[in-house]
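Known limitations

Files may contain more than one protein. Parsers should not assume a single record per file. Below, a two-record file is shown to illustrate correct handling: read the sequence, read the token line, then continue until end of file.
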Amino acid sequence: MATESVDRRAAHIRGLTVTTLASLAGVAAAVVSQAVAGSATDNTALYVLVGTIIVQFPILRVLGIEVEDFSTKDYLYVAFMTFSLWFVSWGVLLTANTPINF
């Protein structure tokens, strides 16, 4: 009984960590895309998105998540969550004509 609750808690913390990082990375990628891309048709924004997706896996290792145990579904989940938050956030920033300068 105690082992089951520990395993469930560990799985929950793992899922929460992966989802939080992917979501925050998507929003951060949108902000960077707004800063470096001139318009919605600029491919630089896609490079920022792909770089953000790739950078998450070493960060997850540092946070104690065993990325080696990820299945294809887990990799697709991280990519989809990051893309979704990037797409929505950058769309809002583009619509509002928000200038971001670093």
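...continuing to the second record:
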Amino acid sequence: MEPIDVFKALSNETRLNILEWLKEPEKHFPKQGAHLPKEVSYKGGVCVGDIQEKAKVSQSTVSSYLNMMQKAGLLESIRHGQWTYYRRNEEFIQQLAEYFKTEI
């Protein structure tokens, strides 16, 4: 884990909101359930387009944000056809919480 990358990723309000929204995707992305492929559930993540719509930023901006968060370890992605779905990397977030408890 590179703590500085995590801090950079979380230093933007929209990126922090995205991480919070993905904690409870059913609550924050209710319309997504209507168009999820059968093999995908909320546990498989949330579509980039739905995140972009909620964040009210351009597609390129949200893609950049999601990429940064994924590189920091906060998110995981999975591709289904032409769509990419993002979810929180809960294992990494637990490690981050432990880091805060023991190191900071």
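Parsers that stop after the first record will miss the second one. For reference, the second record is described as follows. The CA atoms of residues 98 and 104 lie 10 Å apart.
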